[in-house]
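Email to the structure team, subject: Tyrosine kinase receptor Cad96Ca model.

Hi all, the expression group asked for a predicted structure before they design truncation constructs. Nothing fancy, just the tokens so they can compare against earlier work. One-line instruction: predict Tyrosine kinase receptor Cad96Ca, return tokens.
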Amino acid sequence: MTIERLKQSKTLHLDRIETHHNGGFAFIFKADYKGCSVAVKCSKLSKNCLQNKYANPSHFSYELEFLSNLRKKNHPNIIQLIQDDRQLQCLVLEYISFGSLRTYLFKRRSDTSRPTFDELLLIAVKIAGALELLEEEGIIHLAMQARNVLVNRNGDVKLTGFQFCRTLSQIKEKGIRNVVFERHFKWMDRNALGFVSVVPRTVSWSFGVFLYEILTLGCEPYSHSKKHLDSDELERKALTSSQAKIF
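Reply from the structure team: attached below.
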């Protein structure tokens, strides 16, 4: 996805487009939309895949589905969808200036004014409220972790990562092995790790690990170098690591 292709969009009318981030599944651009700064997230699928209407649902399809349904709820701690181009598989989202919560907390370790316990608790409460809404809507967030929370300049937080969300019916249709991603294993409970079940309480476990990330100012859980973890490894090795720095 190039900036030139974005400029050719018949749906999006963007100005001052610049490359912002190269993600795992999408290119992220910063641009102006109707006089406001926005983030533009574009799928990395090839042109042939974009034109194949019979292809399996992509990360873009799931993210668009959930953000479109949640837009009318206007939750203050869920990233807001502004516009989309389904042909190019691009989403226009509100721009969040400080990036991921994990990076934000890690950088603030050396600050003279580190986050207080009350600040960290408020972050947890806000994200818990966002997850409560997802549960009410029947949505299971399968990547609940600090890197999928963004921090704004005013210190507010927004839940993202909706490309990894699924409903129970979607999980049943696709199978657990096709909805649990290897890169998220450190945040999964035993049943998800063993591909036994994925249910709303799976998110509760992930949220508990997310709390660990907050309280250690951005330390990733478990001191494993491998991406794939099985339940036995998780039992043998400690959750924390030498990098942990309690607030």
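The chain is about 35% helix and 20% strand. The two ends are 40 Å apart (CA to CA). Ping us if the truncation boundaries need rechecking.
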